[in-house]
Amino acid sequence: MANVLIAGCGYVGTALATRLASEGHVVWGLRRRPDALPSSIRPFVADLTVPETLQALPPGLDFVFYTASADASDDDSYRAAYVDGLRNLLNALDGQRQPLRRVFFTSSTGVYAQSSGAWVDETSPTEPAEFSGIRVLEGERLLMGGLFRATVLRLGGIYGPGRTRLIDRVRRGLAVCTDGPPLYTNRIHRDDCAGALHYLMNVDRPDQIYLGVDHEPAEQCEVLRWLAAQLGVSPPGVEPPSGSEVRRHQSNKRCSNAKLVASGYVFRYSSFRDGYMALLDEERS
User: Fold this and answer.
1) Considering only CA atoms, which of 162, 182, 184, 279 is closest in space to residue 230?
2) Which residue among 43, 51, 200, 282 is buried most deeply as judged by most CB within 10 Å?
3) What are phi and psi of 66, to 5 degrees?
4) pTM
5) 103/89 Cα distance (integer angstroms)
6) Strand runs (DSSP E) across 35-183, as ranges?
């Protein structure tokens, strides 16, 4: 069994920590406020942006999963979460001579700026134009240039239990399709985020970078219309893109999970249909 630290133990991190603890691993969840952690996870109260709180990490760590996320959608928050916090933790791990086997980092498909619906994989150019992708990519490079063996999982849009905003918008008739060429979206269910990280932890020599998305990049309006049909409500209307929507959707690509699948990981929810149907079934029950 391994000693594991989940740094930034939030939505994905808690799901992963629960899985690992159920297998008998010793798991610490690093959070500023540990009240919401399940009893199977050992709390470690710290703030990744405050180096002094990281001076006495749990000893003898085998694996670290950095699953922190930004507190707000601005450059300062992204830099704090994905660059400064990561740097502080890596410095602390090095200073304490932790015998790590590997550090895992949850990155984002936002590091890709492709805008014409092209397929991308782990070898595709990463030239983000938005601050979010720029900071996440900066964190990737910081980790890859460090002392520890590292693996990055670039996650698509995460949904799952408790994250039903899209369902709610469709149900209330607030969701609209954007007129124009196909706009592709890439998703992954929270349980597959945790599942992929868990799986890669047990791979003897995982690669440095994997894309964490389901099997089916889906056109935005296809998802909305499918949800409307399942909910028994009117399909969304079609509207021209506003200026803010054009900026928000500059990135338009289809992400391939072929490398992760070839490594041996088997998805629980292979498409948005599987994942959202599970959420809808849970609602109905």
Assistant:
1) 279
2) 200
3) -95, 100
4) 0.95
5) 11
6) 42-45, 63-66, 102-108, 118-120, 150-155, 157-159, 177-178
* Tokens found for residue 39: 């009893």
DSSP 84: I
For strand 184-185 and strand 218-219, is the pairing parallel, antiparallel, or unpaired? antiparallel
Q: How far apart are CA 264 and CA 285, in angstroms?
A: 33
Report yes or no: 191 and 240 within 8 Å, Cβ to Cβ: no
Contact in structure between 79 and 135 (CB atoms under 8 Å): yes
| Per-residue tokens: 146 | 């460090």
Tokens 């996440």 appear where?
136
Strand, helix or coil at 107?
strand
Q: What span, in angstroms and rounded, lies between the C-alpha atoms of 9 and 66?
A: 8
Q: Which residues pair with 177 in a beta bridge?
A: 238
**HSE-up of residue 178 (Cα within 13 Å, Cβ side):** 19
240, two tokens: 């021209």
CB 2 within 8 A of CB 17: no
Query: CA-CA distance, 39 to 219, in Å (whole number)?
Result: 40
Q: Given the DSSP bridges, would you call strands 3-7 and 26-31 parallel, antiparallel or unpaired?
A: parallel
Taking only the tens place, the pLDDT of each residue in 233-271 is: 999 999 887 655 444 446 799 999 999 999 999 999 999
What are 24-62's pLDDT values in tens digits? 999 999 999 988 899 999 999 999 999 999 999 999 999
Q: How far apart are CA 248 and CA 132, in angstroms?
A: 12
Q: Which residue has the higher pLDDT, 243 or 173?
A: 173
Residue 190, classified by CB atoms within 10 Å of its CB into exposed (0-12), middle (13-18) or buried (19+), is buried
Report residue 167 as tokens.
Answer: 């369902």
- Return d(Cα 83, Cα 119) in angstroms, integer: 28
Mean pLDDT along residues 219-235: 97
